[in-house]
Amino acid sequence: MRSVNPVLPKTEFAVERLLPPRQAIVAFFARVTIPPPRSELIALDEALGRILAEPVVTGDDYPAAHRSAMDGFALRAQETPGEFELVDEVRMGAMPAASIAIRSACRIPTGGVLPEGTDSVVPIEEARAARNRLFVDEAVATGANVVERGADMRRGETVLQPGRRIRAPQVGVLATLGVTAVPVYRRPVVAVFSSGDELVDPDRSPSPGQIRDSNRYAIAASLRAMGVTARHYPTLRDEESEFESALATALAECDGVVVTGGSSVGERDRLPHAVATIADPGIVVHGLRVKPGKPTLFGADAGKPIIGLPGNPMSALLMLEAVAAPIIAALVGAPVVAATLQARLAAPARSRADWTWYVPVTLQNDGEALFAHPLPVRSFSVSLTARADGYVVMEERDEELPAGAPVSVVSFLGG
Q1: What is the pLDDT of residues 170-197, one digit of tens each?
Q2: How do strand 104-108 and strand 356-365 relate by DSSP bridges?
Q3: How far from each other are the two terminal CA atoms of the chain, in whole angstroms?
Q4: What average pLDDT does this structure show over 229-250?
Q5: CB neighbour class for 223 (10 Å; exposed up to 12, middle 13-18, buried from 19)
Q6: CA atoms within 13 A on the CB side of 183
Q7: What is the 3-state secondary structure (H, E, C) of the chain?
Q8: How far is Cα 272 from Cα 390, in angstroms, rounded to an integer?
Q9: How many CA atoms lie within 13 A of 198 on its CB side?
Q10: Spacing of C-alpha 135 from chain mean position
């Protein structure tokens, strides 16, 4: 961290120089290298949602022996059709007591280990059993209804790669392989600030001219959904020295910083000057060719990202999830992927030429198709993101989308 920057960039941004979102992210990573996350071992039962830090390699074949895929009778396929002597019964959790002699068969449950000397299983409904005799009327193929040793996982096979987000299926694989201490990436700690003299904590009653701070909690919730440990910091007031000292403290304590408000070009917007003053390389991108969210700022200090989001609640959440997610993904160690649904626009959606627009929508199913209803973007609206089921991205080329156009609706994270 540097103490002073003798040459500060201009805080105003010209529309003709604004970058579209994708180029802004490319520009950020061209100048900022985020260190790979550190790893730690955690208990298997705590691994859900975490990011795997090391490859998981099988120590043995799975299954470890040939197993039956059906309830039935184990026998030699080459001896079918015909009559067999029923000589034994395979029990779950135990190896068969002995090999099976010629023209003999044994009962076997689904998942049971095939006895030595057998290679196929006849389902119960395809054979007739009477006392100690079994009658099979049709020929059976070798390997029929048998799961071969190693059919699922082979010894030495890498079944899970680093960077994989651990969900319930991966937990099951880890348990199957006996991995009870799971190597995962440590959750990065990101400082979350709101800025503005008008903000009060949610447990206070605002006076006229004040509002409760919703951004800090919405942004923290979104970061947690991405795999981050969000740490609340006190609200930044509109004093330049406080911005600088608070940011410096947070950068020393955390892996990154997210600030809502104060990122525009007004006289009271302190964030750009503070970032340019205390951080190295400081500001990388200031202003995007998007709506909503034009005043977004990307900066860094010694590999720690600084993300400045608009004060508008809708803009702040959209810019974090729709644009800044790759930066958070680099901290976390895995891509941040939001769920999407395919729908059709219920009404036309219009944007500005050569700009990227994010259109909040509600979804409605009329019984035949899923329709996305565009919502008006109002800068004062706190409830807009809660009312929306997601958003549609209108790229630079999508100046107008007609009613009925197929669209992908991106869900908000943690929804």
Answers
A1: 999 999 999 999 999 999 999 999 988 8
A2: unpaired
A3: 37
A4: 87
A5: buried
A6: 12
A7: CCCCCCCCCCCCCCHHHCECHHHHHHHHHHHCCCCCCCEEEEEHHHCCCCEECCCEECCCCECCCCEECCCEEEECHHHCCEEEEEEEECCCCCCCCCCCCCCEEEEECCCCECCCCCCEEEEHHHCEEECCEEEECCCCCCCCCEECCCCCECCCCEEECCCCECCHHHHHHHHHCCCCEEEEECCCEEEEEEECCCEECCCCCCCCCCEECCHHHHHHHHHHHHCCEEEECCCECCCHHHHHHHHHHHHHHCCEEEEECCCCCCCCCCHHHHHHHHCCEEEEEECECEECCCCCEEEEECCEEEEEECCCHHHHHHHHHHHCHHHHHHHHCCCCCCCEEEEEECCCEECCCCCEEEEEEEEEECCCCEEEEECCCCCCCCCHHHHCCEEEEECCCCCEECCCCEEEEECCCCC
A8: 30
A9: 10
A10: 54
Q: What percent of the chain has a predicted confidence (pLDDT) above 90?
A: 73
Burial class (CB in 10 A: 0-12, 13-18, 19+), 268: middle
Q: How many residues does the chain have?
A: 415
Per-residue pLDDT reduced to its tens digit, 126-184:
999 988 999 999 999 999 999 999 999 999 999 999 999 999 999 999 999 999 999 99
Dihedral (Cα; 229, 318, 261, 280), 10-degree rounding: 60
Would you give the distance in Å from CA 333 to the centre of its chain?
11
pLDDT tens-digit map of 28-49:
999 999 999 999 999 999 999 9
Q: How far apart are CA 76 and CA 166, in angstroms?
A: 42
Write phi, then psi, for 24 (nearest 5 degrees). -65, -40
The single-letter code of the amino acid at 174 is: L
Q: Which two tokens stand for residue 116?
A: 């030595």
335: number of Cβ within 10 Å: 14
pLDDT tens for 280-312 read 999 999 999 999 989 999 999 999 999 999 988
